[in-house]
Design a protein that fits this description.
mainly alpha, DNA polymerase, domain 1, hpI Integrase, Chain A, 2 domains, 13 helices, 3 strands, about 5% strand
């Protein structure tokens, strides 16, 4: 069994990766296929550290010097951002778990070599426990979506109010379609929500959502024909409570009209609510209470993408970054 030569390494590949490759080949006897998979996953992580959306191969062709990256200074927070970003890009849990396995093996090797004092990957949650995030809607996408309903049509005006409320409060779609008129207080600017486990929470309405709700109750809801129950806040065409599936269908229609190409669902507006709040400086505990999560660990997943984006903004705009 021969040692791989330096020429086997890609241009500008970090020396640490070449040494790691030798360890995997000579001491662990891994196949060439496995060696290539490990190297590919590690290079993709380095490419992610650079903040590029391109893959590792194209980065090498562009002449990126991978030795610019200090792999010995990687933190667990960076790794959490990598995991969240991988899910956001559509990678499945199996693919992400494989990448994390390669990183874990790499950092355990560095630990054995005395090059690091701890393995930052060891503190990551198990990938099987990490939920895949729905695609992130930008603030511009949300604005385009909310602008689509035709306010001259009572049903579409109702939809506009529902969309505004969903984005302003982060309600679950089941909570939204099941709202009754008595759960909304215009005077206090609050919605009283009954969530999972019959737990109640009070969610504030922002100024735009409050104006939308006040206009809806005054001018739109009375025009929806056939309301069979006075308590139904957002009646369907037949007058009863709308189903989740019906609302999902209507969101997809507006997204198509707005030219939003990514797959969209009501839960994505809940996710946008949480992510955009964190992007603008909200604390995790407040977002947890607004979402109605019983544990802050459930809310934690929303911070990974937000934190990574804040780090990017800092690096781009702070004079001493």
């Amino acid at each position: 069994m021969t040692s791989p030569s330096r020429s086997d390494a890609l241009p500008s590949e970090p020396v640490l990766l070449t040494e790691f490759n030798q360890y995997l080949l000579l001491e662990r006897g891994l196949s060439q296929h496995t060696l290539q998979a490990y190297r590919r996953d590690l290079l993709q992580f380095i490419a992610w550290l650079q903040g590029s959306d391109t893959n590792a191969k194209s980065l090498f062709l562009d002449g990126v010097d991978y030795n610019d990256f200090d792999l010995l200074a990687v933190t667990t927070d960076q790794l959490k951002g990598f995991v969240a970003d991988s899910f956001q890009q559509g990678k499945n849990a199996r693919s992400v778990a494989r990448s994390i396995s390669a990183l874990k093996t790499f950092y355990y090797w560095l630990l054995d070599e005395g090059k690091v004092v701890s393995n930052p990957v060891s503190l990551l949650p198990k990938i099987s426990q990490v939920k895949k995030l729905p695609g992130v809607l930008s603030e511009q996408d949300v604005d385009r979506l909310l602008a689509e309903p035709d306010l001259s049509d009572p049903l579409q005006a109702r939809d506009r109010c529902m969309l505004e409320l969903l984005y302003a409060t982060g309600l679950r779609v089941s909570e939204l379609v099941g709202l009754e008129t008595g759960q909304v207080s215009i005077q206090q600017g609050l919605v009283r929500v009954t969530g999972k486990g019959q737990k109640e929470r009070l969610v504030p309405l922002g100024e735009l959502a409050l104006d939308e709700m006040e206009s809806y109750l005054r001018s739109v809801r009375p025009e929806i024909a056939g309301i069979s129950q006075d308590k139904v806040l957002f009646p369907s065409r037949k007058g009863g409570f709308m189903t989740r599936q019906a609302f999902w269908y209507r969101i997809k229609k507006y997204a198509l009209q707005a030219g939003i190409e990514s797959s969209i669902s009501p839960h994505q507006l809940r996710h946008a609510f949480a992510t955009h709040l964190l992007n603008h400086g909200a604390d995790l505990r407040s977002v947890q209470l607004l979402l109605g999560h019983s544990s802050v660990s459930t809310t934690q997943i929303y911070t990974h993408v937000a934190n990574y984006r804040l780090q990017q903004l800092y690096q781009e705009h702070h004079p001493r970054a």
